Amino acid sequence: MSHLESLERKLREMSENGNSAPMNEDSGAENSSGDANSNSGNGVMCDLKIPRKFLRVLGYDGRTNDLVYCKPLSTTEDEEISVDSDSSTTNNVDARQKCLVYFGGDMQDFPEIMEQHKEHRDRGYICWNLEATAALLQKQFPTYNIVVVRPSRIQIMTFSCFDNFVNSASNTGVPDHVITHGSLQHLELLLKNLSERVEKSQQQDQILAKQIAHVSKEEEEESEVSSTTVDESLTTNGESLVVEEPEKPFNPHLDRSRISLVGFSKGCVVLNQLMYEFHYLKTLTPDDTAMSPFVSSIEDMYWLDGGHNGGKNTWITSRSLIETLCRQNIRVHVHMTPYQLTDERRPWIRKEERTFCDWLKRFNAPLKRYVHFENEPASLQQHFRLLTEFGNAEKTMEPEGNIEDSQIGTESTSYTGVLSMQ
Fold first, then answer.
1. What is the helix (H) or strand (E) element at residue 367, kind and residue range?
2. Residue 285 CB-half CA count within 13 A
3. What are residue 77's phi and psi, to 5 degrees?
4. What does the pLDDT average to over 5-17?
5. Buried b vs exposed e over 266-293: b needs ≥16 C-beta within 10 Å?
6. How far is it, in rounded angstroms, from Cα 309 to Cα 140?
7. Is the distance from CB of 273 to CB of 114 less than 8 angstroms?
8. What residues are paired with 148 via a beta bridge?
9. pTM
């Protein structure tokens, strides 16, 4: 087998299997698999608009997380910028890239791992795998870079444990919130190092593309085969293997982006921990401003049907922590379903969520709250379906008004921003 045939075979296998150019263990980048994430027919260069895995991305204090990344589907005219530009040098905040970071719930993992669990496979939960979720988020937020954080520990292939963000000694990921766990530092470094890995992966893709083009040219000359383009020479069994003109590698500078944080179900424990860390930085160590630029870049936080296996503290109800959050001018979004709100086995979820939202309104925070599928019976599939709806619902609702102290946590509190989607 000639060198060109070997490269052609490698390219064909990558195309069929949905894998990018071979990576060494240090780079750890892999392309997503599955129908929704297939990258076949796109040439050597991996299409970063398709979810792509980056394994063991280094963060704070030696911690690592596996991540899924995909670039924006589009940019609006007023947001179009050079992704290689140093966003820290611009005075126009809106000129920065936007990044949505997602922390998922129990069961959500890579598809090949979920496939090994009989219940996840037989009951259809595999469709909510982390790569498919990245694609869902990308469709609802097409101008955002999407980053999905895989938990550092998933017990019995089910219970998500975000140990790198939240202290937990539980086998089910029940949080033990502390005043600081280095979570903000970890998130910032993850985004910084992921950005570098994205750039490096493109460079490695280009190397393979150039190797194929170079070997093809040499074998053309040796065999005196007339060919005007590289594309025509890369044929096997009558099928063309296209080597497209590669785009210039880019670094998205995700750590400098305008950041939105999304927690779904168990993933909300990460957002709750960040509230402790906001309070630590802004109230207990106000002279330490090292993290201030990164904290200021967080513009939105989404709590989606928050819940965990503990008996309390599903939602933050501390006035001081919520007041500190409000001072950050972060837009808060709360999306709920009957799966959590009507669970009589865990009535504290409903009560804590109400108190959380009441305090936000008391401090006149920019809050949007929605109840989806309100007239449907609660189910786990309904819980997951929220991932397909919340982004689109955001476009139709207005922030809620404030309330008085005496109304906080009472059952008589009315929510004007309730949305029932059928």
1. strand 367-371
2. 12
3. -60, -40
4. 49
5. bbbbbbbbbbbbbbbbbeeeeeeeebee
6. 29
7. no
8. 68, 102
9. 0.79
